[in-house]
Structures are given as C-alpha cells and as structure tokens.
UniProtKB/TrEMBL annotation, chains A, B:
GO molecular function: DNA binding; RNA binding; RNA endonuclease activity; RNA exonuclease activity; zinc ion binding
Single biological process term from Gene Ontology: DNA-templated transcription termination
Quaternary context: Homodimer. Interacts with RNA polymerase (RNAP), interacts with the Spt4-Spt5 complex.
Lineage top rank: taxon: Archaea
Cofactor: Zn(2+)
Name of the protein: Transcription termination factor FttA
Residues bound to Zn(2+) 1: H244, H246, H331, D354
InterPro entries assigned to the protein according to its UniProt record, in alphabetical order: aCPSF1, Beta_Casp, KH_dom, KH_dom-like_a/b, KH_dom_type_2, KH_sf_prok-type, MBL, Metallo-B-lactamas
High-level lineage: Archaea, Methanobacteriati, Methanobacteriota, Stenosarchaea group, Halobacteria
Binding note for cofactor: Binds 2 Zn(2+) ions, which are required for nuclease activity.
Domain Metallo-beta-lactamase residue range list: 194-407
SMART domains: Beta-Casp, KH, Lactamase_B
Gene: fttA
List of residues binding Zn(2+) 2: D248, H249, D354, H607
Entry function: Terminates transcription on the whole genome. Termination is linked to FttA-mediated RNA cleavage and does not require NTP hydrolysis. Cleaves endonucleolytically at the RNA exit channel of RNA polymerase (RNAP); the 5'-3' exonuclease activity of this protein degrades the nascent RNA released from RNAP.
C-alpha cells in the first residue's frame, strides 16, 4: 500500500469520525491540491453550513465535497429546481450537469448572486438537488478565447480528472530526503529582457517558474537543454508556475509537453486564457514569418488541460515540501507575484514576475506583503539609475493634448498598442476623458486582438482594480462597453470607410509596428498631414515602430496581391507619450523592496539589461544593506 | 559520413603528402587523445628520426605510428633481435608482443636505457623488427598492485582499444554550439573536507573532477543524484579527471560505471594504480564493517580499464573545446594540479586538488606556474587564520628525540601512519637519520598496506622529488631498499616475535587507529611503559587515534576467536609530532597564490571546513584583491 493510500485511508477515518453519524463518506481522493470527499448524503452535508470549513481547518487541506452519483436527482428534474433557487437577476446563461463528478456548472452574468451570502445560495442548490454547483461568469463581452477554453475543458473532463488525481497523489507523496536545501537556477532573463525561466529546487522537488521566449531574438530560448533544467527529462519537474501570460514568460511552456512533461501548470485563470490566446498567436506569427514553430497547437491545448488555476491569496500545496501563493502583481490581467513557502517554516522565496508598484487605472499596485520572504527574485526592467518614468497623470494630460490638437485639425489619432494591458488602459483613459469632456466624443476603433483581449478582461473583473471592479459589479457601468468603442470586425472595407470619415481614434496592434492591422492603417493614413501617429509604449531596437519614432519617414508596404514590396512616405505627425508602462520604474522597484516588512535577506535582480540589473542590485545593497546579486544565466544559488 | 571520418580522411591525405613517397600510410585512427598512423613501412618511418615530431607539430596532435600487421617480423624471430638492440644493463625482465597493435611491451629495470637518447634505441628496435616498442619499468620492489593492473590491462587489450577508439572519436567530434560559457558546479567538499566532486561544463562538454567519499560520514556522498551531476545519465559526462588517489577524491569513481558511464578517466599512471589499491581496500573495509559497498570489484576494474594515463606537463585534448594538463601537486604520489584550457584562448580554470606548496622529502612542491588561469579552485584544508604547521626540520628533530629516548629506555616506537604518502616520508626520514647516525640503527617494520604502497612509489620514481629520483636512477641507491626496512609478511607470528624482541620502529596502518594491524600491535605493546605510541598525522574527531592522543588510556580489543570485546589499558608513552602533513598550511596556501604570475581573477576556496574556507577566501581577497568565494555544495558559478 503506497503512503498516499495510507494517508487517504487515515483521512477517510478521521473525516467519518468528525461528521454526524447520518452522513456517510463513500470515498476520499486527492484531485490536484484539493481533497475531494464523496458522500451519499450531499443534502445533509449542505444543511450543516459550516461542516466543510471546520473539516478544512482541522485537516489543513482544501476540501471539496461531491455527491455519490446515486445520490443525485436526474439532470432533467434538477435543472428546473436549480433555476428556482437562483434569483432571476443572476442572469444564468448556461447550466451543465456532469454526472461523473456530480457537478453542475452554472454560467451566470452575476456569479455573486448564484453564490449568495457566504455561499448560502450554493448550499441551497445542493440541499435541493444534491449536485455540487460550480459557478463561472458569463463574459459581458463574448470572448471566443474564453468560450473555446471552457468548451475544451468540458470536453476533456475525463482526462483532466485523471491528471488531477495523478497530480494530487504526487503532491501528497511522502518526503524522501532528509537533506535540506533551497536552490535557484537561472535559465534565462538574467542580464537581459526576455526568455524568463528559473528552476526552484529542494531535495524533494523541482519547480520551473516561467518559460518564455526573447522577442526580436527568436533563436535565444531558455536553457532547457542543460541538465539543471529538465534533468533526466521533463517528467523530472514537479510543477510549472507561470507569473503572467506575456510571451517572454509563457511562450515556451507548451514545448515542455513535447519533451514529455505531464504535470501541472499553476497560474491564475485569466493568465491561462491569455496564455492560450498569445501562444496560438505566437504560432501564427512564426508561420507567417516562415519560421518553424517549436511546437503546435496540440501542445497549447495540453498546456491548458494541465493548468490548475489558483486565485490570489490561496495557499496551495504543490509538492510535499512546497506551498505556493499567488498575489496581484499589477502588471497585466492575472499577473502574479509568486510566493513559495518551503518546508515547515524552513525558507521562503518570492518571484516578482513583472510588476507595477503603483495603482494604474486597470490594476491595484503589486502586493509586497508576505509573512516572510528570505529571498526575492525581482524584475529590473527599469532598474537603471535614470529609469524614471513620466507620472501617469502628466502622461494622460499630454495624450489628451495630442488628441485635441489632432481633432482640431480634423485628423485621426492612430495608436499602435499591445493587445493585452496597454490597450485596456488606453480605453479607460479615453472613456473617462470623453465622459468628463476633456476630449470631444468621437469613435474609438479597436483593431487586431484588442477586442478579444478586452473581452477576456471583462470576464475576470475580480482581477481588476477595486473601483473598476466595483463599477462593473455594482453599478453595471462597464467602461469597456461604452458606446464610442467599436470593434473592427469587417476587415479592409470597414477600415477604408473609417479612413474616409472624420476625426476618430484607432487603437491597433501590433504595438511595435512589426505587422498586423497597424500596417494597413498606415497605408490608409500615412499621407494625412492632419492625423497623428502616437506611440504610448516601448519601441524595441530594430522595430519599424522605433524607426518611425526616431524620424524615419518611409513605410514599407507589402502589397498583398502582387506580393511585391513598395514604400509610401509618412506625412503624419508623429508623437510619443511616455508614462503608460506596465512596469514599475526605478522608483517603483525601490519602493517595492523598501516597503516590504520584513525585508528580504537576499535579492536577485533579473529581467533587465546588464546595467539595469547591476544598478538596481547596487542601489538595494547600499540603501537597505541587503545581499544583492545580478546573476548571469545558468548560475545556481544555494540558500540554506 | 560523420565529421570525424571526414577529419580522419583529411588527415590521411595530409600525412601521406607530408611523407616521403616510399612510406605508405594504410590507416589513420584516433585512439583516446592520440592520432594513430598505421604504416606498411615502419622501418623506413623509424629511419627518418624526426618525421613523427615534424608531423605532430604540423598537425598539432599527439601522434603514434604503428606497423601494419603484415609488415611485422614473427615474434619468435623478433624477440632475439630486440634483445640484441637493447643494452644488457637495461635489465629487461619481460617482452610481450601484441599482434593486433604491432606493439611490443618491454618491461625493464632501467627504462631510460631502452628508450635511448631522444628515443634512439626505440627507433633502432623498430628499424630492426618493425614492431612499435612500449616501455614500462620493472618495479624495483615487486608490487602486486602494479603487476595485477598490468596483467589486467594486457588481458583486456582488445576492449581497451575499442574504448580508446570510441573516446578518440568523441574528443574530436565537431563542436555543435555557438554559445560560450564556462561553469563550475560544486557537488561536494564545499565548507567540509571529503567527498570532493565538481562539474566543469561548457555548452559542448561536461567534465567531472574527482568523486570521493567522506571518511567518518560514509552516508554523505557527492551529490551525483542532482541533475547537474549526471544530467540525463552518467553517459552525459565527457570525461572524469582525478587529481589524486586518496579516497576522499576517488572512492566513488567506480560507481559511475554502475550508473552507465563508459568514458575515460584521466589521471597519472601512479594515481591509477593507487586508486585501484585504495578502492579495493575501501570495499574490504565496508564489508568488514558490515556496510553494503556501493559497488563491487568489477567496477574498480572498469575504472582501471577506462583510465587514460597522462604525464605531468602533457597538454591533452579531452574534448573538442577542452585541453587538460596535469602538474605535480606535491601531495602524494601522482597527485596533480589540473589545468583546463577552454576554447581557443577563451578561458582557463585550474583545480588545485590537494597540494603541498613546499618541497618535502618525497616530492617537489606544487606547480603553480601556468600561462593563464582566470579561475582557481583551491583546497583550504589548513586555510584557517591560525593553521600554521611546525616546520618539517623541527618536526624531524622532535621525532628523532622521541626515538632516541625510547631506544634509550629499551622500548619500541609504534607509529600509526597512512599507507600512502606519510609512511614513505617517514621511511626517508628514518633512513637518513640512521645513515647519518642521528638515531641508532634498528629494524623498521612495515605493516599493513605500507609495503605495497612503497612498492608502487618505487615503480614511478619520475613522480618523486628530483634528488630522490636521481638517487634511484643514477646512484642506484634506492633508500626504500635500505636493509633496516622489513616487510611484515608472516602475520601474527612475526609480530609476536618482534614484540618479544628489542628496540625497533613499527610503521603500521591504519593512520587513525580505526582498524588494521595497528590494533594487533596495540595488543602486543600496550603494557610496555618503555615503548612509545607516536602520532605523526592528523587524528580526526571520533577516531580511536584522537582519543588515545588526548589521554584516553583504554584500548578496546576485539578477541578474534571468541568474537567478544574486552579492553586493555595503555601504559605506553604517547607522543604527537606535528609537521609532516601532506597539505600546505595557511602560509603555503597563501604563497601558492601569491607567487602565481599572472594571478587568477577568481578563487573558489573549497575542501576545508566552513571557517577555513571563509578565512582563506577573505585573506586572499584582502591581500591580493582577487574575487574570492567560499562556495556551498550544489552551487553553480558561471564565468564568462
């Protein structure tokens, strides 16, 4: 009998003895980090409101109670009863009964009303029909990504349960080693930006944190081939943890499944969806540029299938000796600072991922409040001694000025922007500026993946800034649904019509003018002297965006039909508005550490070019007397 | 066609074009680091004295010329002719013809006379019979280890040639990576003494340096199980390099073959033989102490079979991007400082192994003269701020005093000593002291493995200190053959007889009184107040030696026949004479670095307890402004 089976037997016994005699427990299983208790008396369970919470706190486990299949009402009968329990205002859009797990998935416009106060409505549902309700939000804007992911997971439900059960047994296996150490190996993004990847290892456990590519240097990938990375194979990893969906952190995760990885990916739910969207786009771009993609869409689906979503603040066992907690990082939707508690009070490591320290319109500032962190691995994108950014208020003023000037001239404002994050921030700025009359009301056209990315944002308002979330939740005044926003969905004809029309604002991808609909917009608008091309994000060396920003006045045009290239000259006004970064600037990074309490003993400065990491490392050392490092790739640090 | 085959074809062509038209080259092969040229005209080759040297320098390869089998005289005829060419004074003791390689192995008491001036006699042999002569020394004292190793290698000749050919092709494979880095991973002996093991890695190559055990803590072995060590398996290693034979550096090497390693071990010839001796003894001790040995004698033989012996100063390709050179380390017979030249002038790393900086009676001081060394990995056994040793002259005076006092009382001097190194140093001290009349002539009895270890020393006089070697070579006055030395080879009866006799000196293992014949000697002599137990080496915490040294006066005696334990009380005088260490003391370690020119940029202080490594690291930093580290086990440092 394996140690996990012994453990489950003991748990079965303990739970039975803790429960009232009339509640029978038919089985106890691990599924991922959760303990699942099967009962033939789900209704009685539900009647005793606090039972599950008491059990969870006694056993120090996350517990889910599921009904035995024979204790369930038939779906046909149950459907009606469930709908009666849920208030109409909840706006239920779908009910889906899974007989294998006894779960009913309820998709509703207002999930809070399905849950009820402290979960009372959920309990009422179980009391009524025996089924275990699981609630998801109906996306306020329809997102094909979200519905694809949900449908896919529904379809793969059986395999997914097998995965979760296997992972659960792995997590709760017996510890084998009596050695004690904590190590971090750098596989990428040291003294450079891009290809983030780290291994956190103990004698028991090996965890990969992020696995990204390096934009503009597609050949440079994380050092997965060195033995530190995958050891005797990808199956040697216990877990993959993803801080956020940007490709320099997520692009190479699917390749792990090609290499034989078959374990869990821990991340937030919005990161899972955005990751899928961006990885598929990554394959698309590779194909268009004639590069052989390193994996195909099948592995993207594997990644999604293996994702175990965590919410901010959930303390989750991910290995016998490691607990993971994710916290808001303020960088993009679902981005997380990941905190690892190792052993029983032995050591704590936090990886900042990419962070924004101050609040933005979209997000609360990054969390830096942990019970303990001995070592912090910290991004340094703007860690250089002079990397101070324009204040966002000033940036917004400047942007409004540009828009007003252009509007006065009868021109259009063309803004290349990243689909995820920057675009939604812009939408919020523009919506408010129009509402308050700072700029005239005019259409804001959204092209490329922006609309889809926005739809994903509105699916997960819990991950947005408090007051923004409240506006969506309570006031039902979702700014992303404002009338002026128009999703370009009819292609070239629609663009032509807009180009022929009056003043407007166009937000479009790609953010660095390296392809996508921005190329078409330039062809339409390049000759308009009254219009303005406005940069609101970082333009990397080597991109057309950077060239245009620095005064270049020719735009290469690829004529789609003939396949030949030609050039048109750019007559538009070109403006740059700094201050909308998703990254903390030097001050923000310093503040992130300064306001930590207790402060970490050691900080590894990564994810920045050589001088940024060294500047930040040196500043943190001198100001706070912390031991700091600016690691190179392929080093291993041992703590303890 | 593989790149190695292409390379060999090119070499074949070049060599043919460089040679006179009447010399035909039938084949060109790699065997280990050497290029072997087969010719149908070995005699003509031999006639042109400088041809091989010219070729070697032109091709920058080590070249061996071998005759085609059909160009050879029959052994029966050749034997007589060979003996005619070699002067009688050479003292040939064996001739062995290998038809597969065309080699004749000549064992002689004076190998130099078989070689002749600049190899002239060797060339004469080939001119006469076509066979390629290979010369080995007849051990002046018969060593069963040496003859076992030689017989074994003779018997495994075919497989050995296969191994060498495979290794040769590996070494000369094409470089695959255009990345550049040099890394060191610490697998043991950091902030501790014992279980030495390091990985030196480049994008191309992974080399294991040493693989030892930890005496007194047999469970603590190098971290071979972490993926950095053996990666996707032991076959992932390109080479194993052994600095010297002591078990804390060599004990776990055979286990690699159990794990599937099948590559070369580079070390000196005496280290190979001593390693075999000590590893077999290691298995023996494990069996006696009831521990399951981690491998068996079969793997010891594999290790010997895979050893490619190098001489001090030979620059040897061991991988496409790594050249290895071994230099005298002054610590024990065959001990080496290993220098790695990586890439074409890219980077240089030296591992000190264990060193003695000053000359001893046995050895010249450690070599620290390299064209370049950017990083030095350095032992720190006596690196602590107060680790200064008694001067050896003073130590010798003190020892002579102890011996004279004991002799005057009519007693015997019992010296526990390590078989390898310390014992031979003692023998030289005693031989000279008697020759010069500083102590009276009396028998010196050698018990345990000491005689065998001494025999190995006399087989390799080239590895001993200049003047000692000269005494053995030119004056034929081998001090180890002095009359007073008696090898105890008749067991208990002989010991009883000696114990009943008059004043004498007994050198015996084990050095820390943890077993072996010293236990029997204590039983015989414990009650003799006039006799002296004299410690001349380090006694580790927890050993009986340390207890007796600190005043304990009881010796546990295991009665061999009844199996019961009892105790006898120790009446002997107990003396400690410091100053015979095989390790450099603090001053020696500092001098080793101080007199390097150029000095290394970085020094990793290892192989010492926590305070010793940190003290030495800090002292080197403050005196020479070198970047120094006192690594922990399981860290990886990247240089470049």
């Amino acid at each position: 009998m394996s140690s996990v089976d012994r453990q489950l037997d003991d748990l079965h016994e303990t739970i039975t003895s803790e429960l009232p005699a009339d509640i029978t427990v038919s089985d106890v299983k691990y599924e991922g980090p959760e303990l699942v208790v099967y009962t033939r008396d789900p209704k009685k369970f539900a009647r005793q409101g606090d039972l599950i919470r008491q059990l969870a706190s006694k056993l120090r486990k996350r517990i889910t109670v599921r009904p035995d299949p024979d204790a369930l009402e038939r779906p046909r009968d149950a459907r009606e009863k469930v709908m009666k329990v849920i208030p109409d205002e909840a706006g239920v859009t779908d009910l889906d009964f899974h007989e294998d797990t006894g779960e009913v998935v309820i998709e509703a416009e207002k999930p809070g009303m399905v849950i009820g106060r402290h979960g009372s409505t959920l309990r009422d549902i179980t009391k009524e029909v025996g089924w275990t309700p699981e609630v998801v939000r109906t996306p306020p804007i329809e997102s094909s990504t979200v519905s694809n992911v949900r449908n896919f997971l529904k379809q793969e439900r059986d395999e997914r349960r097998d995965i979760l059960e296997r992972v659960g047994r792995q997590i709760h296996r017996e510890e084998m080693s009596d050695d004690e150490y904590v190590r971090i190996t750098t596989l990428g993004c040291c003294r450079e930006v891009g290809r983030a990847a780290f291994i956190l290892s103990t004698p028991e456990t090996r965890i990969l944190i992020d696995c990204g590519d390096k934009p503009g240097a597609e050949g440079e990938v994380p050092y997965l081939q060195v033995p530190e990375a995958l050891g005797a194979g990808a199956q040697n990893l216990d877990a993959v943890v993803l801080t956020h969906a940007h490709l320099d952190h997520s692009a190479l995760i699917p390749i792990l499944f090609k290499y034989g990885y078959d374990g869990p990916i821990y991340t937030t739910e919005p990161t899972r969806d955005l990751m899928g969207l961006l990885q598929l786009d990554y394959l698309d771009v590779a194909a268009k540029e004639g590069r052989a993609p390193p994996y195909d869409s099948e592995q993207v689906r594997e990644a999604i299938k293996h994702t175990i979503p965590l919410e901010y603040g959930d303390v989750t066992d991910i290995a016998p000796d490691v607990k993971l907690t994710m916290h808001n990082a303020g960088h993009i939707l679902g981005s997380a600072v990941t905190h690892f508690h190792i052993g029983d009070g032995l050591y704590n490591v936090a990886f900042s991922g990419d962070i924004h320290y101050d609040d933005t319109r979209l997000f609360n500032g990054a969390v830096n409040d942990f019970p303990r962190v001995e070592t912090l691995v910290m991004e340094s994108t703007y860690g250089g001694r002079n990397d101070y950014q324009t204040d966002q208020d000033d940036a917004e003023e400047r942007l409004k000025q540009v828009i007003n000037d252009t509007h006065d001239r009868g021109g259009k404002v063309l803004i290349p922007a990243f689909a995820v994050g920057r675009s939604q921030e812009m939408m919020l700025v523009l919506e408010e500026a129009m509402r308050s009359g700072d700029i005239p009301e005019m259409p804001v056209h959204l092209d490329g993946m922006i609309w889809e990315a926005t739809a994903i944002h509105t699916t997960y308002p819990e991950y947005l800034r408090d007051d923004l979330r409240d506006r969506i939740f309570h006031e039902d005044k979702n700014p992303f649904l404002a009338d002026q926003f128009n999703h370009i969905d009819a292609g070239e004809d629609e663009r032509q019509e807009i180009a022929d029309g009056g003043p407007c604002i166009i937000l479009t991808t790609s953010g660095m003018v390296t392809g996508g609909p921005i190329m078409s917009w330039l062809r339409h608008l390049a000759s308009e002297e009254e219009s303005t091309l406005t940069f609101v994000g970082y333009q990397a060396q080597g991109t057309l965006g950077r060239r245009l920003q620095s005064g270049w006045d020719e735009v290469p045009i690829n004529d789609g039909e003939s396949g030949r290239g030609s050039k048109i000259s750019l007559k538009m006004d070109v403006e740059t508005v700094d201050g909308f970064s998703g990254h903390a600037d030097r001050q923000g990074l310093m503040n992130f550490v300064k306001t930590m309490n207790p402060r970490p003993e050691k900080v590894l400065c990564v994810h920045g070019d050589e001088s940024s990491t060294q500047d930040l490392s040196s500043a943190l050392y001198h100001e706070h007397n912390i031991r700091t490092f600016a690691p190179k790739n392929l080093e291993t640090f041992r703590f303890l």
